[in-house]
Write a structure and sequence with these properties.
With 178 residues, the chain is of the alpha+beta class. The chain is 18% helix and 27% strand. The protein has 3 helices and 8 strands, in the order H-E-E-E-E-E-H-E-E-H-E. Strand 4 and strand 5 form a beta hairpin.
C-alpha cells in the first residue's frame, strides 16, 4: 500500500516541465590517500544504475541514487516523451524557488538535440533539471527512488539536493550515460 501511496503522491505532484555504446561501469573510488575535495569538477549520471556521482578528477566524492524520467531507457527525443537526455551538458544555472525543492538546470537541448528534433518535426523540450522532491513532499525521502517519476529530470532527496547545491558550481559539466 505504501508503494501505491508514494507513486500516487509523486504522480500527482509532477508538473509537466518537459523535465524531462555499452554503459561504462560506475567509477571506483581512487586509491589516493587524503581527504576528499569539497567541490565537484564534474557530475556523472549512469541511468541504468540510477546513480549520480559527484567527481573531482578521477575521484568519486559522493554517490546518490536517483529517479529519472518516467520512460528511462533511451535519449530524450522530444518534449513530453518522459525521457532523460543522454550526453554531455553543462549545469548552467540554479533555481532556489523551483516547484521542487531547489533545482539546477542542465543545458539540454544542445545543438545536436535541436537538430535531431528539427528533422523529426518536433520540439526537443527543455527545462531538464537535477532537483529535489516536489515542494511539501520532502517526507517521501529516499522512497522516491523506487520509481522513475519525473518528466525527464534527475531527482534526489531534498537533503541530497542541499549537498549537490553546495558541492557543484554553475558551469560544471554533467555527463549522462545510458
Amino acid at each position: 500500500m505504501k508503494r501505491r501511496t508514494v507513486l500516487a503522491v509523486l504522480a500527482s505532484s509532477v508538473a509537466i516541465l518537459g523535465c524531462a555504446p555499452e554503459p561504462a561501469p560506475p567509477p571506483k573510488p581512487a586509491e589516493k590517500p587524503g581527504p576528499l575535495p569539497k567541490k565537484a569538477d564534474r557530475v556523472l549520471v549512469l541511468k541504468g544504475a540510477r546513480k549520480l556521482f559527484l567527481m573531482a578528477g578521477d575521484r568519486t566524492i559522493k554517490t546518490y541514487t536517483v529517479s529519472l524520467g518516467r520512460v528511462p531507457v533511451g535519449h530524450k527525443e522530444r518534449e513530453g516523451d518522459g525521457k532523460t537526455p543522454e550526453g554531455t551538458y553543462t549545469l548552467d544555472y540554479r533555481n532556489p524557488d523551483s516547484q521542487y525543492y531547489r533545482s539546477i538546470h542542465i543545458s539540454y537541448p544542445a545543438a545536436a538535440d535541436r537538430e535531431r528534433a528539427r528533422k523529426l518535426g518536433v520540439s526537443p523540450g527543455g527545462e531538464i533539471m537535477i532537483h529535489g522532491l516536489p515542494n511539501g513532499k520532502g517526507w517521501i525521502g529516499p522512497d522516491h527512488a523506487q520509481y522513475d517519476w519525473t518528466e525527464g529530470c534527475i531527482a534526489v532527496t531534498n537533503e541530497e539536493m542541499d549537498e549537490i547545491w553546495a558541492m557543484v558550481a554553475d558551469g560544471t559539466q554533467i555527463e549522462i550515460r545510458p
